[in-house]
Each structure stands twice: as structure tokens, then as C-alpha cells.
Amino acid sequence: MYRMTNVFRSLWKRSVLRWIVLGVVILAICITIVVIVIVPSCKTWLKEKAATADVDIAGVSLKDISLTSAMVEVTVCAQNPNPVGATLDRIAYVIYFEEDGKWVKLGSADKEDDVALKANGSTCFDIVNKLEIISAIRALYEAYNQQGSVNLKVEGSAWIKVWPMSFEIPFERIEKVGL
To answer: Which residue has the higher pLDDT, 12 or 25?
Structure first.
């Protein structure tokens, strides 16, 4: 037994055993990642875990109107009930206003900055959208016709990144915005 321990120490000092152990650990990590990415049941499990994250529009407000544009601020909140942190990889949405019962496109946004979502936490952030003046004038006219308020709809998707994969989570919010 004592002799075996000396042999082990000798191999470890020569670093042959170190490289073998390191290679086995790296191989095990790579195999695990490949299984998660390729095997459909693992993908489904991971998607269900990511899909429990909830992305919602907390508010839509008109911030500024000028002769050339209008600014609308959209407050986005993401809740991550999972014990593992995630990243909001991208968020894309379209803003509509209601005119005579139909939804008319007012503007759009596509934010690709990463937002860290803490485990078992909530994160809120604002996105300011610059709208074209023609669309803004139509929305203002509609608000005038409806005694100073207009319905705005924000419809889009957020992509939550968990480990090597990203999952789409759709959302929609309709809010009456007053001038």
C-alpha cells in the first residue's frame, strides 16, 4: 500500500496523471453540453425551465413631443423564478395605437444589450423609443377624438439565454395612455 502511494505521487509529480484527469474532466463537460443541446428531452426540460421566466410590459408612457418626433418610454420587467440566473439576450417589439378599432403601427424597437436576470429575482428597465412624427400625429389625433387618451399596444418577444441556448418568450400589453 505504501509503495502504491509513492507510485501515485511520482506519477502526479511528473504531471502525466494531471493531464489525464484534466482531459477526462473537459471531456465530461463537453459531453454534458452536447447531450443538453442535442437530446430533445433535455432541450424540452431546459426550455420549460427558461419559459418559467416571465417578461411583461409594466408601463407605456408618452415622454416628449416635438415638431419632428415623439418619445414613448416602455418599462420592461422580467421575473426569473428559477434558482439559476439567466440573461435577457434580446427584446424586440412593435408599438401600435388603436384607430377606429384597428391597430396601426406606431414604431418598433429591437434591443440586443444583455440584461442579467438574477436567480429568484426581478429586473426592470426602460427603453425609450423615438417615433416618426407622422405616426405620432395620427395617434395624437386619435387621442383628441377619444377625449385625451389613446390605446397603445406593445407586442413582441424576449429571448432568454440559459446556458448555451436561447428561448423566445412572447408578450403583449394594451394600455390606455393619456396626454
So the answer is: 25
